[in-house]
Amino acid sequence: MPSKLGAPHGWRGSEPVVYQGSEALKYCGYQELACSGVTAMGNSHYEAQNSEADSGPRLRFTLLAYDGDSNAKAGMKGLVASVHKQDAKSKALSIQSWADETDAYTTGDSSSAVMRVGTVVAYVAGVHVTKPADLQKFAKLQVERIKTAAGGKNPDA
């Protein structure tokens, strides 16, 4: 999960909240996500340092760890369907996240990406993040953190 320490220059972050095991399944179910095989789930937030509350750029990072590739693929498919259902006017964005799968889109003043890296599904939702390059920067940050952690290293080190 992105942490306070991992926030890029000009951004401030919150400490991540992480759920594991049955608690992750329960929390996942509250959000009506594809939860079969979820082993852990967490989220954190970033916001621009010089922004007014609720008016400046901010991002929410959500991660879902699954017990295998097939459940992660199904989880991503379900999350993408849920997100697109919430806003039928969303437009596809082309970004490079270096994930195994990526679905990115914009809805005017918001841009988001759902990505899968192995057995982890990441959702980066940005409000007042309208430039594809900005979304790509944070999507890439998330994917790099997942790959670093999967390699047994601390992404904040």
Task: Kindly describe this structure.
This protein is α+β, with helices and mostly antiparallel strands. The chain is built from 3 helices and 8 strands. Strands 1, 2, 3, 4, 5, 6, 7 and 8 form an 8-stranded antiparallel sheet that branches. The longest helix is centred in the C-terminal third of the chain and has 19 residues. The mean pLDDT is 88.
Shape: globular
DSSP summary: helix tally: 3
The secondary-structure element order is EEHEEHEEEEH
Residue share in β-strands:
25-35%
**Main pleated-sheet profile:** 8 strands, antiparallel
Uncertain regions spanning at least 5 consecutive residues: none
Work out the number of β strands: 8
Residue-averaged pLDDT: 88
Rg over CA atoms, rounded to whole Å, is 15 Å
Terminal Cα separation, in Å? Answer: 13 Å
What structural category characterises the helix and strand content? alpha+beta
Give me a quick take on this structure.
The protein has 157 residues and is an alpha+beta fold.
Features:
30% helix; 157 residues; 3 helices; alpha+beta; globular; eight-stranded antiparallel beta sheet; single chain
What's the topology here?
Elements: E1 11-13, E2 17-20, H1 21-30, E3 38-48, E4 58-66, H2 69-86, E5 91-93, E6 101-106, E7 110-117, E8 120-127, H3 132-150
Antiparallel strand pairs: 1-3, 2-3, 3-4, 4-8, 5-6, 6-7, 7-8
